Amino acid sequence: MKPKELWSMAKKNKQAIPSFNFSSLDVALTISRIVQNSSYQCLVSTSERELNFQTIEIVVAGIKALQKQGYPVFLNLDHGKIMDTIQKAIQMGFDCIHFDGSSLSFEDNIHITKQIVEQCKPLNISIEGEIGKIGGSSTLQDESTPESILTDPNEAIRFVKETSVDILACSFGSGHGLSKEPEILKTEILDEISKQIEIPFVLHGGSGIVPSEIKKAIDAGVVKINFNTELRIAWHDGMRDYCQLNTQDIVPVNILTAADERVAKVVEDKIMLCLNR
Ligand SMILES: [Zn+2]
User: Which of 3, 124, 157, 241 counts the highest number of beta carbons within 10 A?
Assistant: First the structure.
């Protein structure tokens, strides 16, 4: 199955495909095992920073090896902004590219997204565009996190018509990271867009959003939900707790196993949310 077929399948079943970020291959393997046990599919994603840390060569080889072993995972570039990285990701066989042109002018965002769409389409790579600005950051520090700018439905409609993206990231009330206040999603923004054009949506900053809001988003046409912060917290806490209890254990396999076990639990929960049962 190709990612584009995933979107239509998810939409038909009123479900969403989870996208989980990873910074090391043990986490990607953990995610892959859980998603396989759940008989579902997911995206494993890296931001440019997470990608540079691991190197694109190792990420691609690692995820291709997982796919070869039958794990139902697709490789996604999350918030791609640097053209060099995007080009490399396309050439090296990423399954999905998210081009984040949200900090560009509206016209430049259309122009560059369109160029990437033209490259991705013949290769069957799913291309996600972004309109509006999804603020926050997937960390616990809240200094200087960018503010969200809600998506203007009219701009979104024009953007989709002109670029022909496969899937659209909108800013409709969620932010990256964990919000102090419960996030209420403004799905009426998605409804406005859907009245004029058929396009599947992406919810960024899925961490911390309560199940009823996730359900509301799926019902409004969201087919991909990104999770990062809660996985980071689980990984960090698992490692911290293990090291506090086992101060003499320096064996990386033991420490990483403890961290990955916590991540697995979060992945399981998020898959259940996305299955929308
Ligand atoms: Zn995001």
Answer: 3
* Percent of the chain whose predicted confidence (pLDDT) is above 90: 89
**Average pLDDT of the segment spanning 128-147:** 80
Q: How far is the CA of 275 from the centre of ligand 1 (A)?
A: 20
pTM for the model stands at 0.96
- For residues 175 and 142, the answer to whether their CB atoms sit within 8 Å is no
Taken in order 218, 11, 203, 273, the sign of the CA dihedral is positive
Read off the tokens for 254: 């033991």
Over residues 25-44, the pLDDT tens digits come to 999 999 999 999 999 999 99
Whole-number Å distance, alpha carbon 78 to ligand 1 midpoint, is: 7
Residue holding tokens 């038909």?
A: 12
- Residue 29 vs residues 107, 156, 239: alpha-carbon distances, Å: 40, 36, 17
**Cα gap 129→98, rounded to integer Å:** 6
Judge whether 78 counts as a catalytic residue: yes
Find the catalytic residue in 26, 78, 166, 260: 78
User: How far, in Å, CA of 138 to CA of 145, rounded?
Assistant: 10
With a CB cutoff of 8 Å and minimum separation 6, the contacts of 253 are none
The Å distance, Cα 91 to ligand 1 centre, comes to 23
Q: What is the pLDDT of residue 140?
A: 79
Give the CA diameter of the chain: 62
